[in-house]
Amino acid sequence: MPKQNWDWLVILCEEKRPRYINSEEIPNWQQGPNLWEVVNYLGCKGWELIFDVFSHSPLLVGYGKLTFRRLKN
Question: 0.85 cut: is pTM over it?
Fold first, then answer.
């Protein structure tokens, strides 16, 4: 089994909330923080939003894929 890359974080979003993180479903995701809160929190923890896959931004429409990369010190 390949070693997981801890420098990348992929979040799949539905209904303006993160539902999956690195292909693992978040328990009780409907009650969790919204996408803007997640992006702000991860930004404070050293993660950079590098791109989204679709032609629209998941932050605006509420669904899609966000990819983060851990910044090096």
Answer: no
